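User: Predict the structure for this protein chain, please.
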Amino acid sequence: MKIFLADAEATLRFGITLGESLSAGSVILLEGDLGAGKTTLVQGIGKGLGINELIVSPTFTLINEYTEGRFPLYHLDLYRLEPQEVAALNLESYWEGVEVTPGLVAVEWAERMPYKPDRYLSVCLTYAHDSTRQAEVTPFNCTISEFITAI
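Assistant: Here is the predicted structure, written as structure tokens:
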């Protein structure tokens, strides 16, 4: 499914819809060039979850955990890592909820992951020179019918 996003505000609103619609245990794998809106989308997801804390890209910290919303948001950024470094992070503990409270996992630069969860929502953002964006949303082993009707 492709979604036209007129500007950064539309990207934020799309994220809010995701945050309001998805449940704990959901995984969103984000791809797109620098400036395509990945962090803006995650900021919207946080708002949709009821998180008031400022959400920033965890480029240097790798993982930011926000726990004040309906359920936790785990925001990961793999930009600076090589696939073998990503594998050493044991990211599955986040989407399996083994060592952390189950929440929503949002992974920026997901194309750097050498493995993926069994179920996830792929969101590929593209940025046009006229400041518009497009999100291509693809579910893998999950349904998003309730989400699709909310858009």
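Residues 8-21 form the longest helix (14 residues).
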